Amino acid sequence: MISRLDQKTTNTLYSHFARELASAGFSGDIELGYADRTVLATDNSIYQVLPEGVLYPRSTADISKILTLTNKSAYHQIVVSPRGGGTGTNGQSLTSGFMVDTSRYMHQVLEINTRERWARVQSGVVKDYLNELAAKEGLFFAPELSTSNRATVGGMVNTDASGQGSVVYGKTRHHVLELTSVLADGTVWNSSPVDNDQLEQLCQREDRIGEIYNTLKKTHCEHQQQVSDVFPNLNRNLTGYDLANIVNKDNQHDLNAILCGSEGTLAIISEIKVNLLPIPKHSALVLVFYRSFQDSLQDAQTLMSAVPDSIETIDSRVLGLAKADSVWESVKDFFPGQRDDIDGINFVEFTGDNEAEIQQGIDRLKAVLEQPVSIWRAGHSVVNGTGNVKKIWNMRKQAVGLLGNMKGDARPIPFVEDVAVPPENLADFIQAFRALLDSHHLSYGMFGHVDAGVLHVRPAIDMKDPEQEKLVRLISDDVAALARSYGGVLWGEHGKGIRSEYAPDFFAELYPVLQEIKGVFDPYNQLNPGKIATPASEPVQLLKIDEVPTRGQQDREIERNAFAAFTSSLYCNGNGACFNYNPNSAMCPTWKATYDRTQSPKGRSGLVREWLRLQTAAGADIAGESHKIRQAGPLYNGGQKLINLVNKWRGEEDFSHQVYGALDNCMSCKSCAGQCPIQVNVPDLRSRYFELYHGRYPRPVKHHVAGLLEPMLPVLARIKPAYNLVMGWSVANTLASKTIGLQDIPVITSSSPVNDCCRAGAAIANRTLLNAIPDSERDKTVIIIQDAFTSFFETPLLTDLVELLIRLGYRPLIAPYRPNGKVLHVYGFLGRFEKIARTNGEELKVLADSGISLVGIDAAVTLTYRDEYREVMGDRSPEVLLLSEWFAKQSETIRQLQLSLASAEAEDFVLLGHCTEISNLPAAPAQWQQLFSDLGLKLTYKATGCCGMAGIYGHETRNQETSRKLYDMSWKEVVQNPEHNGRLVATGYSCRSQVKRYGDGKIPHPVQALLQVMKQQALS
Ligand SMILES: Cc1cc2nc3c(=O)[nH]c(=O)nc-3n(C[C@H](O)[C@H](O)[C@H](O)COP(=O)(O)OP(=O)(O)OC[C@H]3O[C@@H](n4cnc5c(N)ncnc54)[C@H](O)[C@@H]3O)c2cc1C
Ligand code: SF4
Ligand code: SF4
To answer: In angstroms, what is the C-alpha Rg of the chain?
Structure first.
């Protein structure tokens, strides 16, 4: 049996503070639970630091309450670290004190002024969300970063973020007009550049503001020369306390130059006024290919003479990883087909307000490409159109995440990934950098901003191995020195964070000036201490890169077999792609609906990692326990489970309950498995966890009911009238909801789906029949594999498919119904699932061995044959195609039928996808579009998020609010849009039932829409 786990509680000073904060009228959330703290103990860096608590303010006033209280002498030991999206790569937001997370509530865009081209936002606003709203006015917030769909503007300001396009658009600070900050004593201050008179007035003040401006003035007067000697003149100048720009080009004193890039060490920023620019109307990319990555770097300077907006580069490793990722589907057409001799690509962008301008840029570049050079270019291609350019940039944005998806224990990690050197030195610097990594036999991928002299490099290191961990120090020291020898800086893009330890050496005599600035803002070193600079008066010094606890150190405490059992989901590197804010992306619906990071793939993975570590420490044998549970079945540990349940009711603590809470709300939609760059598979994690947890605590009744659904449906179908009478009765619905926690259970649509199919023209697939089919007819035969949802709750779709196939000249066979086991897997009945998978899998294998294709209708069920069945059966698992995949294979044959179904009545259709299908088979929409086009019809794909149903999730009573919220976030508007009337088709059974359940009508499956058009045409 797994062990009961104690959890680390918040220390007395912090819990005392939390109580006083609550009584001071703090209106946000105060979380001291171990789960919340564990989830926020990591960012995208190699580090893991457990905060004492997490504070989620709702307003500037709330932040002021926090800092007014920390300023009291009784609380001078309390430290706080602001946090936005938590995507920092160097531990910037990690703290052992309180984390102040603005992303949960402070995410409003407060105002967009189109005429004056600015926006005022709360600091927790995600950058892409701001740009979504600004785009409606033809404007955008220009600084770019790969994490733009989850990083906050507050985080960007504090790391002075920049990325692709920085040569034209600069860094975040170039677009900051005004900051509202809360200072360490709770004072709220609005800062914007001030002229000399205003500065003098501010310097007269006798408060913290006066001290700050006096220090600013003094620094500028006394250290100008030193500053220009030390601060390199780079596009990506170093981040943090930008002394070089205290006085701006209009001769104004700008406090924001110091605040931007200060990583939360000087103040907590609550609101930001940013400059917006008009969106360029046109853009194009030229992709220049090379056989050597070094050549691509060397060529960048030559290409710059064509004056493009930006040049980005990737190497063959990144390209290879992109090809294996879901993102490839959207860009594959822009790359040369079968060429595997490409080792580097430069992406050269031109933007402009008219097409002629773009063409001029492309012509300039073509002229450059025609000039003789010593390096060998391997061709180029042009990508026209803003939409296409966006797709390529999106692929490029995913590169860092993709690098993390290398297999094995050694994983690419960030610690020397953003060195900036003068662009003309980049090729030589990278050669030396590579030699350094090669001397340690490390593998790595490279990509980045060649125009700005920044290349991202993440060496693959197994941080679980103490010997390999030492390389972090060795390589960091060498790279910091190497960067300086090429006139560059270690911190060129992603900020300093825990790498601040190199600052005293780099700034030399200027470092005390940084200390003075820190001291005047934060005299007691309470704001994100140990980073950028510490006040000279404080004994606490900067953090050291090898003295802060790492994730690898925690992971090595997990027993090997336990780690191996959960390996599908433990390599989360915290890149945060699962926090995508966009309601129309499939990625994690439960996070979007709650803004609670424990309800996300990252949160769930982090919690289970910690749980495994604690279980190992408590002596539990995780792998052995799973084995025992599977062998013993439901009666395992019966008596003890009841005792444990009683103890739970009595309030006995167990960290396992908190982990269970996070996993229980997961919808098992598998978007994480498909879209997380590391393919963190939370449904798999959840099943394994449920199995173990319920080896200690009894299961709720609904698990057993859901687990019996698949085998019981054929039996219930026989008593269909009685069953439907009960299910249609509102009292029964309420009763089911109150007792087993399930509601709106669908009615059964057929007492024998197989008979219905036979009536529609199919035959039952069995070995005798299959053997009798002549070879010449096998290509035109297809076996439909039934699933519980379609067969019993939506039989007309099954029979419509049969009819459509016949009309297209195929011979449909129907496989006898067998439970697939999907529901058992979802609930972690893994022993029972294995048995079903083996039996069902072997039977399907017999059918598949006939050489005739097997197809499944429901994506979630069909995909189990290639994922979960493979776990059980290995290579023996049967190949079952999704309908869209099978139709794609038949494209040529169907096209040859020359059935042009287009007519005045058959309008263009709009496809809504099923999230499991879209995120795990990104080609599906294109495959359906191909089928419609083969039949002379047009199908447009409309990206949506989760509909809120996801199998049984939407039927659970406790999930009703979230289920509805998710539907309203993405589907409602599309479904209710009058322009879509009668034109929508949806591939998911869950999605179609959700639309019906919320009274928004009926949406057919694409197959049904096609059949309908065919029938109408036959009549006319
Ligand atoms: C895959 C990947 C790709 C990346 N690509 C880029 C890139 O292209 N360009 C780039 O510049 N960076 C990049 N980064 C780094 C990171 O995304 C940026 O530094 C980003 O600006 C951080 O924003 P955030 O909201 O996640 O901030 P967090 O990580 O939460 O915080 C970053 C810092 O800002 C401070 N902070 C946050 N909010 C506030 C506030 N309200 N007041 C005061 N301080 C605050 C924190 O204390 C911390 O020091 C990348 C990271 C990853 C994981
Ligand atoms: S779960 Fe995946 S997407 Fe989310 S933070 Fe972890 S690695 Fe990134
Ligand atoms: S399965 Fe879906 S709900 Fe669960 S963690 Fe993954 S994306 Fe989120």
So the answer is: 30
Does pLDDT of 87 surpass 70?
yes
Dist. CA 165–CA 245, nearest whole Å: 21
And the tokens for 902?
A: 């287009």
Mean of the pLDDT values across residues 388-405?
82
Residue 906 is predicted with a pLDDT of 66
Q: Mean pLDDT: which of 372-386, 389-403, 680-694 is highest?
A: 680-694
Q: Please state, in angstroms and rounded to a whole number, the distance separating the CA atoms of residues 114 and 352.
A: 20
- End-to-end, the C-alpha distance of the chain in Å comes to 68
In angstroms, the CA 721 to CA 729 distance is 12
769 alpha carbon – ligand 3 mean position (Å) = 42
Please give the structure tokens belonging to residue 158: 């504090």
Report d(CA 542, CA 967) in Å as an integer.
48
Ligand 2 atom with the smallest distance to the CA of 605 is 1
pLDDT-derived band at 454, boundaries 50, 70, 90: very high
Question: Whose atoms come closest to the Cα of 578: which ligand?
Answer: 2
Given this model, what pLDDT does residue 338 score? 61
- Cβ of 575 closer than 6 Å to ligand 1, yes or no, is yes
* Distance between CA atoms of residues 83 and 100, nearest Å: 6
pLDDT tier at 337, thresholds 50, 70, 90: low
Annotate 160-186 with three-state secondary structure.
CCCCCCHHHHCCHHHHEEEEEEECCCC
For residue 43, which atom of ligand 1 is closest to its CA?
29
Nearest ligand to residue 576 Cα = 2
Does 538 have pLDDT greater than 80? no
Residues at CB less than 6 angstroms from ligand 2: 572-578, 601-602, 605, 672, 676, 678, 680
Q: Is the CB of 162 under 6 A from ligand 1?
A: yes
CA of 88 to the centre of ligand 1 (A): 4
Adjacent-strand bridge partners of 109: 121
* Contact between 986 and 794 (Cβ < 8 Å): no
Question: Which ligand is nearest to the Cα of residue 860, counting in written order?
Answer: 3
CB 377 within 8 A of CB 300: no
C-alpha 570/C-alpha 564 separation (Å) is 9
Beta strand extents in 441-557 (DSSP E only): 446-449, 454-457, 460-461
Contact 750, 720 (CB under 8 A): yes
Residue 404 pLDDT greater than 80, yes or no: no
DSSP string for 188-244: EEEE--B-HHHHHHHHH--SHHHHHHHHHHHHHHHHHHHHHHHS---TTPPPSS-GG
Q: What angle do CA 614, 620, 623 make, to 5 degrees?
A: 110
Average confidence (pLDDT) over 766-771: 91
- The protein residue with its alpha carbon nearest to ligand 3, atom 7, reads 588
* Position 333 pLDDT exceeds 90: no
The amino acid present at 619, given as its one-letter code, is G
